[in-house]
Specification:
single chain, mainly alpha, 9 helices, about 0% strand, globular
């Protein structure tokens, strides 16, 4: 179960970061714009990329073992960099998830295509899911349960973000709450980086 909880905490720490995707999802959900479609697209994309990340690194371990230490240390460096960024935001109080008040509600197929574009055309999604989550997951004792945990984190986050949007808007717009959240994220990512390194 340690691999499962590691996957869940790593996944949640990376997925919940403030970004264009989360702002768009919250904005659309506040307007009631096909929330189920948005959640399904985001969750399925994350799950697919997480699986590709974890198991592609495992294949590299089998085919090109010398690359494994390089990928591991690259993952450590990126985790520490993200931890530094979260700690800096917490210190400076620069966090808050702000959604637009006015949103044009479209048909569900157009919403699905837009959700796919915002998710898959965002370079950070590949860094977070394929590179970082994949690197950490590949060295776990149970990569399968790590993958399940990371996918569950995405499921929980996007379900909450779309289903509880009216209440979450107030909660997530608080800079103080985001400072606390960023501080916790910095600690978690630093701990995982150190564990991965040693």
């Amino acid at each position: 179960m340690l691999s499962f909880f590691t996957g869940f905490t790593v996944g949640l720490s990376l997925i919940v970061a403030i970004g264009a995707q989360n702002i768009w999802v919250l904005s659309q959900s506040m307007a009631g714009a096909n929330r189920l479609v948005i959640a399904a697209v985001c969750i399925l994309c994350d799950a697919a990329l997480i699986v590709v990340g974890v198991y592609s690194v495992q294949l590299i371990q089998l085919w090109l073992p010398p690359l494994v230490p390089v990928l591991t240390w690259a993952g450590v460096a990126m985790l520490l960099w993200l931890a530094f960024g979260a700690a800096k935001r917490a210190w400076q109080g620069q966090g808050a998830l702000l959604a637009k008040a006015e949103v044009q509600v479209r048909s569900w197929p157009k919403t699905a295509v837009t959700a796919l574009a915002i998710t898959l055309l965002n370079p950070h999604v590949y860094l977070d899911t394929v590179v970082l989550i994949g690197s950490v997951g590949s060295v776990q004792a149970q990569p399968f349960w790590f993958t399940v945990g990371a996918c569950l984190a995405s499921l929980c986050w996007f379900s909450a973000l779309t289903g509880l949007a009216p209440r979450l808007k107030v909660w997530l717009s608080s800079p103080l709450r985001w400072c606390l959240f960023d501080a916790v994220v910095a600690l978690i990512l630093s701990g995982i980086a150190l564990k991965l390194a040693f």
